[in-house]
Amino acid sequence: MLPFSIEIKAGQPIADQILFAVKKAVVTGQLRPGDKFPSVRQLSQELRVNPNTAHKVVAALVAEGVLVTTPAVGSIVAAPAAGNKFQKAELLGADLERLVVEARKLGLALDDVQAGLAEQWRKLGGK
Questions:
Q1: What are phi and psi of 69, to 5 degrees?
Q2: 70 - beta bridge partners?
């Protein structure tokens, strides 16, 4: 059984959905630093995805610093990245830009977006 939950939806790349589910599990504490992460084979079998997709997901999580892979141990959840808040916030730049574009496309006001963001923050255990 996987240490995170995911509901696969049509219309979005499966790798992106898995990446999001793992990151969400980390920020909500479902996955904690030091927890063992499933192997590519296990991920592929349990999610019924191509092994290449599973490998792509693990490689992306390692590249983003979410996982650390060591020989003879496998992949584990990494400790939070060092760096100041400004450096960490810069990493969100592209995602925030997409959020703004989608919100404006829907005709939402900044206050509406901020309220929605605050609600999601609270849902995921933010203070």
A1: -115, 130
A2: 74
Integer Cα distance of 36 and 75 in angstroms: 6
- The model's confidence at residue 88, banded by pLDDT at 50, 70 and 90, is low
Name the pLDDT band for 108 (thresholds 50, 70, 90).
very high
* Amino acid making up residue 107: G
The pLDDT confidence band at residue 5, using thresholds 50, 70 and 90, is confident
Spatial distance between the Cα atoms of 3 and 115, rounded to a whole number of angstroms: 31
Q: What is the pLDDT of residues 11-32, one digit of tens each?
A: 999 999 999 999 889 888 899 9
Query: Long-range contacts of range 120-125, CB-CB < 8 Å, 24 or more positions apart?
Result: 124/24, 124/27, 124/28, 125/27, 125/28, 125/29
- Taking the C-alpha atoms of residue 3 and residue 101, their distance in angstroms, rounded to an integer, is 33
Measure the CA–CA gap between 3 and 116, rounded to whole angstroms: 28
